[in-house]
Amino acid sequence: MFEFLDDFFIRALIAGIAVALIAGPFGCLLAWRRMAFMGETIAHSSLLGVVLGLMLGIVPQYAILFVAVIMAVVLYFLDKAKGLARDVSLSVIAHGALGVGLFLISLMPEVQVDLEAYLFGSLFAIDEVDLAIIFIGGSAIFATLLYYWRSLVAVTISPDLAHAENVVRPEAEFVFTLMVAVLVAITMKITGLLLVSAILIIPAAAARFISKSPEQMAVLASIIGMTSVAAGLYISLLNDVAGNAAIIVVAISLFASCYIASKLLFTNR
Amino acid sequence: MLLGLYPATEGRIERKAGLKISYVPQKFEISPFLPLTVKRLLNFTQKYSDATLIEALQATDCDHLLSAQVKQLSGGELQRVLLARAMISKPDILVLDEALQGVDQAGEVQLNTLISSYSKQNNTAILMVSHDLHLVMKSTDKVYCINGHICCHGKPEQVQHMEEFKQIFGSLVDHFAVYTHKHDHNHQHQHQHGENCDHEH
Questions:
Q1: Which residue, A167, A267, B86, B174, could crosslink B22 as a Cys pair with Cβ 3.0–4.6 Å?
Q2: Could you tell me where the DSSP H helices lie in B34-74?
Q3: What is the CATH classification number for the domain harbouring A154?
Q4: ipTM of the complex
Q5: Any idea what DSSP says for residue A85?
Q6: Contact between A190 and A244 (Cβ < 8 Å)
């Protein structure tokens, strides 16, 4: 029944489109809140996840997910404590996790970790486990996002007014942090550490130029992301170039097109 | 504390059931990356019909801004929109935290008149936090002077002659026209006296 999943290209296409669909609204929320680098920060911790997975004998995908969630929780409480500026706490977490990960790897000379897959993803090596994680994790965070959307947008507009007028579910921000962790963990395989932020933020940034409401921007970001994945993979199939790089090249072209279109069509935006 | 943004440090807050409080914040910085129309800003915590929204915006003379992007409003336009927003729900208490900053002189007089008449028509208590002595002395019924703690309170004409008040504002009490002051001002404390009161500050 699922024979078509035997094809690595089809698996890559399905995984990429699913992730881009979910990344759209999340990228918007991160961009609105000036948290564009949060995705990348959590992604830095995935090397630590791989190593811990090897040490404890856990499937690496699950170990990455677990460590990403832990990092997100730490980040949430650092942020809440307000002891550090947000960019500082992001940097501390990102490079702290990366450093510990590298340190642990060097303690295990017998282990060969594919650093290239970690940095650039392995889009064409997506297997059934990855697809299952993307499908289950993706549906879960997408449904949760819809449930909390109103709270999250209200806090984005004005935290003071949203709280004074009682429209915020108190756990919304914490749940949002967890959802970003899950999203980054499932995105890592496709884009790798270096390009996680690209698939989260570039479609959202492109959508900003041509949208008038938060929801419109979220939907357009998803559409731009999915278009980038489909077109990018097609280009990589024709020309034998790296799939994730082709996706980002399409995305950045769409970004430039949206910018130019907004300058030409709407002068007062 | 009145708004429920901060927990009470001592004592406790009692609220009448169904008490409605609206609020115009001192700082309202919208992310430049967020596309948002004025209509959505008015609607984002509770939905209203277009007619209600336009009526509210007309009261503060900015109904032409209904479909404008919030990011493009001037400081004064934004304060008018936020004031209109606070008035839509017909609140029992309207909290204005330096609400008229960025509004021009003529607009300020106009909006103050509007706030006063709104308060009388709808039986709404206005709790205003302001550094503008002129405004405070002219248009309020009761003044709390706060300098880290409540140092004096009473009717404007009483407060004006109190020793504590004179110590802070010194000779400026005699000529309000131009003044500067650098005292330590803590807005949180102002809210302690707000619960369930139906007098104006």
A1: B86
A2: 38-43, 50-59
A3: 1.10.3470.10
A4: 0.77
A5: -
A6: yes
